[in-house]
Amino acid sequence: xxxxxxLAQGFVAALTPMNLLMCLLGxxxxxxxxxxxxxxxxxxxxxxxxxxxxxxxxxxxxxFAGIYYGAQYGGTLTSVLFAVGTYTLFVKLDVSLPKGVLxxxxx
Length: 107
Known about the structure:
This protein is mainly α. It has helices spanning 2-14, 17-34, 41-47, 57-82, 90-96, 101-104.
């Protein structure tokens, strides 16, 4: 029973309005950085690290999670629309293009 109480306490701490706002900000900024070709989620976190210096540790970790997932999604947009991106996104590119198009691309 103690485990469920701690889990509920974690959800209460994570779902405060300030932490949800930090997550939303992280996702939006992560998508903006992630759309740039060649910049993955880890580089996006490194670039946006100074934004979390004034935040609490919980809000900073939540923002890092939002940046990571936003950058991953932003990289998918670039990979599918422009056929460029990092090596982890070529599977998504191969699935999204019609059959035989990937072999005709110049890479």
